[in-house]
Amino acid sequence: MARETPPRIFSPTRRKAVRRRMLELQQAPDAPRYLLDDMVEDMLERLAFLRHQPQKALLIGDVGGALKKTLEAQGVEVTAAEPGAGFEEEAPYPFSGFDLVASLGTLDTVNDLPGALIHLRTALCAGGLLIASFPAAGSLPVLRTVMLAADEDRPAARIHPLVDVRAGAQLLQRAGFADPVADGRHLEVAFRSLPREIGDLRAQGHSNVLADPGPSLGKAALMRAAAAFEAAAVEGRTIERFEILTLSGWRR
């Protein structure tokens, strides 16, 4: 039976362009990095807890190389891959045999997530571990409300659909991982303005890459968005919430 073609929710071209822009913006010394930093810290804690000392690791989306530097200091041979530089997560990888594959903040915008997880498992050697973290369902509740206010009675798709913990666990099982674990945590960030939040998302590679991104917001819509954002503020700051889903599993 022919494999069913996944729906085209995200634009690979837009996705690559957003990642490339992120790589440029991350060159600034004050670039926001809190999402990636949280994922890196969490992955290192998991490796320590599991007492898994890899010898050969594949790191996908390790912008800035923080995880790479830490693992190399422990004697790990690291291969880095970046979707913005042309690495294709929905195709068979050109390398394999890793006892650790870590994916940071990229799997939320692939069209074929089950297929991408299968490629990740294939890249592992027997006994190898996958840890993948990315934004999950429940993220950006303020921004979602703000965009609805901006669009009024004609809401457009502007924010990505996201995977929740339950679906993540099912996807790991479907991809053939042993001892699959899916869990979530949240991160809250305070913003003084809507442009600042949009700028942070852009600088961290989490802006709109939908295949149908919706029409541009006009001046009146932008004013409604700004007003809705300010209405959500407490003492001059609006608290936004990011849900982070982490998937882990072994190849037996």
TrEMBL record:
Protein name: Methyltransferase domain-containing protein
This protein's record includes keyword Methyltransferase: yes
One MF annotation (Gene Ontology) recorded for this entry: methyltransferase activity
InterPro entries xrefs: Malonyl-ACP_OMT, SAM-dependent_MTases_sf
GO annotation terms (biological process): methylation
Organism listed in the record: Novosphingobium kalidii
Record keywords, A-Z: Methyltransferase, Transferase
Domain of life: Bacteria
